[in-house]
Amino acid sequence: MQTPTTLDQLSLNQNAEIVGIDWGAISDAEGRRLRALGIDEGVSLEKLHQGMFGLKDPIALKVGRMMIAVRKAHAQAISVQPVAASIAA
Amino acid sequence: MTEAAPLIVLAGNPNSGKSALFNALTGARQKIANYPGVTVERKSGHFAFADGRPAELVDLPGSYSLDPTSPDEEVTRGVIMGLQKGERRPDMIVLVLDAANLDNHLRFALEVIALGHPVVVALNMMDLAERDGLTLDPAKLAEALGVPVVPTVAVRRRGLDELAAAVDGRLKAKPDGVKPIVAQERDHGLRQQAKRIANQAIVSETAGRRWSERADRLFLHPFAGPLILLSVLFVMFQAVFAWSEAPIGWIEGASEWVAAAVESNLPSGFLRDFIIEGAIAGVGSVVVFLPQILILFLFILLLEASGYMTRAAFIMDRLMASVGLSGRSFIPLLSSFACAIPGIMATRSISDPRDRLTTILVAPLMTCAARLPVYAIIIGAFIPPTSVGPGIGLQGLVLFGLYVFGILGAMIVALVLRSTVTKGPNSGFLMEMPKYQLPSLRDILIGLWQRAWIFLRRAGTIIFAATVILWLLLTFPKVPEDSAMSQVDYSAAGRITNVIAPIVKPIGFDRDIALALIPAMAAREVAVAALATTYAIDAPDEEAEAKSLTERLQSRWSLPTALAFLAWFVFAPQCISTIAVTRRETNGWKWPTFMLVYLFALAYVAAGITYWSAVALGL
Q1: Per the domain annotation, does B428 fall within a domain?
Q2: Core vs surface per residue B330-339: b (16+ CB within 10 A) or e
C-alpha cells in the first residue's frame, strides 16, 4: 500500500482515490463547483497531465469519463490515496 | 387554438451537445437577446411537431447544478423554477445528457427531475459513447428515472423525430400518473445516486479506442503542447490578414459603387453629402472589417467545437495566472486581436466576476484590426524598409513591436488592477475538458452567421449614429463665403480642436493631428482618412494636392511625432463602440468611464515619453 499524498504531489498516470478535501482552503463557490464537477471525497481519479514547461500547474484529471483541469492551489487541498490498478474501466 | 405555442427549454451540463441539438431542431432562424438586467444570452427559436403545431424552443445556459455558481447558472435555475424575469414558465424541459459521461451529467438531471416538472431526456452523443466502447440501454435509464429517454446524435441529426414525438406525447399526457424519481440529498448522496443509475443503464463497457486521450498526450505535452498552440495561432493570424484582402477589396468596391450611384442620382446638397460622406463612408469604413472578423471567428468556432480551445486555456493558464487572470481569459483576449467588441462579449464565459471585469478592462489593449491601417501608413512613411537581419525587415519589426507593446501593457495593467480595483482572492481554474470531436459544418455556419449579424446590426446602429454625429460636427456651422477660414476650422469640430490642441501639444501633436483624433473616436482607422481630408483641404495648389498622404506626412511630421502617434494608438480608447459594449456588459457607466480615463492617461504618458525620448536621441 502506497502512502497517502496530496493531488499535486501524485505522480502522472497514477490512479488514486480522494480520501479528504480541506474545504476550508477553498472558497464556498469554488467548493461547490468542484463537487458539481464530480470531485469529492471517495471519488476515484487518474492524474493525466500537468502544466507546461515543468511548472506542474494546472493539473488535468480524469474523473469517471470526464477530464477536468484544476489549479495546483486546489490540488494541494485534496488528499489522495494512490491505488494500483485502474478502477474505472 | 387560442393558447400560445408551448415553451420547451433545453437544459443540461456544458459540453452535453445542447447547442448542437438546439441548432438541429431550430435551424438558422434563431433570436439572440439578453435576459433583462443580466448579461446572459437568451437563445430562442421555433420548431414544429410532426402535425405542424409550433413550439418555442429556448437553449438555456449550460449548468452543472441547480445551486448556481455563475450568472448563467442562475438564469438556468430561474427559468426551470419558473421564476426568471423575461421568461414564462416552461411547458417542457428537455434534459440533454452526454451518453459517454452519464454519471456526471445525471447529477444535474436528477436535481431537475426531482422538481416534478414535465421532463424528457435526450441521451445525446450516442455515437461517441459507442466509439468509447460503451453500450447503453435507454429503456433501463427511462425506467430508473421515471421519465422518457430518447437517444440522439444532434450533430448527425439522428433521433430528432423521436425526441419531438416524445415531447409531444409528454405534453399531451395528463400530469398525473408519472412518478419521477426522488433525488437524494445534495452533493454526496446525489453523486452516488447518479453513479448507481448510470451503472444500471450501462449494458457493457469495453476499453475502446480512447483516441481523445491519446491526442492529449501530444496536445498537452509540457513542451510540444505550447509549440503546437503557437503554430495554430500563427496560422490563424496569417489567415486573418491573408484571406481577407480580396473580400475587403470587394466591400470597398461596393461602397464606392453605392456612393457613385447616389452621387449621380441625387441632386447635390445636404442630403447627398450626408448620405455619401456620413452614412456610406462611415458605415463602410467599419463593415470593411467584416471579412477579418469572420475569418477569426471561423477559427475560434472551429477550435471551440473541436474541443481544442479548452486545451489552449489549460496551456495558457499558468501564464495568465502570473498577472492574476486565468486560462479562461485567453479566448476573449485572443478575439480582441480582431476586435475588442466580440472579445468583451466572449468574457461572459468567465465565471469569476473580478476576472471577467479585469479581462474586459484590458481587452482594448490587444491590437485590433482597426489599428492596422493607422500603423501601416505611419510605418510606411517614417520607418525605412531596411533589413535588420535575414528575412527580418525593420518595418515588420516595428509592427511586431507595437503588438508586443500592447500585450505587455495589458499584462501590467491586469496585474495593477488585480491588486487595486479588482482586488480579491485569486480564483481557481476549474474547467471540464471535453473529448475532441469533429465540428459540424452546420453548427459552424450558424455560429458565423450569428456573429456577422450581430456585427452588422451594430455597424448599422451605434456606429452609424456616431459617424453621423461626427460628420455633422465637421459640417456645421457652415463657413461664411467671405471667410478666410476653412470649413474644417470653422466647424464645431474645428472649435473643439482648439481646446484639445494645447493639451496634446506637449506630446508632439500639432493641430492637424488633434483634429484627426476627434473623428477617430468613432473608429481608429478614420484617423487616416481624417488626416488625408485635412491635408487635402489645406493644399495651396493642385500640385501639392496631388501628393500622396505618405509624402504629406513626411514633409509635415517629425519622426518623434510619428513615433508618438504610434504609441498613442497602442493605448488610446479611440472607439465609441468598445465603450458602448463595455457599458452594456458591465451594466453601468462606472467601468466604461474608468476604462476611458485610464486608457487616455496611458496613451498620453506613452506618447509623451516616446516623443521626448526620440527628441533627446536627436531622431
Answers
A1: no
A2: bbbbbbbbbb
For residues B121 and B146, give the distance between their C-alpha atoms in angstroms, rounded to a whole number. 10
Q: Given an 8 Å threshold on Cβ–Cβ distance, is B431 in contact with A69? A: yes
Distance CA B141, CA B182 (A): 15
Q: Topology of A5-83 in CATH? A: SH3 type barrels. (2.30.30)
**Pick from B592, B96, B123, B114: nearest CA to B341:** B592
Tens-digit pLDDT profile for residues B423-453: 877 667 888 888 888 888 888 998 888 878 8
User: H helices within A1-89, ranges in order?
Assistant: 28-36, 72-75
Q: How far apart are CA B340 and CA B584, in angstroms?
A: 14
ipTM of the complex: 0.91
State the Cα–Cα distance between residues A41 and A39, nearest whole angstrom: 7
Contact A35 B191 (CB under 8 A): yes
> Chain B residue closest to A53 (CA)?
B222
Distance to chain A for B67, nearest Cα, Å: 8
Domain identity same for B266 and B327: yes
**CA distance linking residue B524 with residue B372, whole number of Å:** 9
> Is residue B425 situated within a structural domain?
no
Claim to verify: residue B126 and residue B165 sit in the same structural domain = yes
> Do B534 and B470 share a structural domain?
yes
Which residue in B103, B429, B435 is closest to A58 by CB distance?
A: B429
Of B69, B104, B318, the CB nearest to A66: B104
Average the pLDDT over B541-552 and give the result. 67
Cell of B386: 531596411
Q: What share of chain A is helix, strand, coil (3-state, %, to 5)?
A: 20, 35, 45
Alpha carbon distance B288, B283 (integer Å):
9
Cβ atoms of residues B434 and B307 within 8 Å: yes
Asked if residue B522 is part of any domain, the answer here is: yes
Do B147 and B257 lie in a common domain?
no
Query: Do B269 and B356 belong to one domain?
Result: yes
Nearest-CA distance B65 → chain A (Å)? 6
Number of structural domains (chain B) is: 3
Q: Using CA coordinates, name the residue in chain A closest to B328.
A: A69
- Where in the sequence is the domain holding B30, given as residue range(s)? 7-209
Which residues in B have their CB inside 8 Å of a CB on A? 64-65, 67, 69, 100-101, 103-104, 107-108, 132, 187-188, 191, 205-207, 213, 216, 220, 222-223, 225-226, 310, 313-315, 317-318, 321, 327, 351, 425-435
pLDDT, tens digit (0-9, with 9 covering 90-100), for A56-89: 889 999 988 889 999 988 899 999 999 975 544 3
Q: Please count the other Cβ atoms lying within 10 Å of the Cβ belonging to residue B37.
A: 9
Q: Do A36 and B69 count as a contact with CB atoms less than 8 A apart?
A: yes
Tell me how far apart the alpha carbons of residues B577 and A68 are, in angstroms, rounded to a whole number: 37
Q: CA of B198: which chain A residue's CA is closest?
A: A64
**Can you tell me the distance from the alpha carbon of A78 to that of A6, in angstroms, rounded to the nearest whole number?**
6
Residues B513 and B604 grouped into a single domain: yes
Q: For residue range B140-170, what is the model confidence (pLDDT) as tens digits?
A: 999 888 899 999 998 888 899 999 999 999 8
CA distances from B126 to A21, B97, B113, B190, B443 (A): 34, 10, 21, 24, 18
What band does B518 get if pLDDT is binned at 50, 70 and 90?
A: confident
- Name residues 15-74 of chain A within 8 A of B (Cβ): 26-27, 29-30, 32-38, 40-43, 48-55, 57-58, 60, 62-71, 73-74
Contact check, Cβ <8 Å, B213/A48: yes
Given this model, what pLDDT does residue B1 score? 43
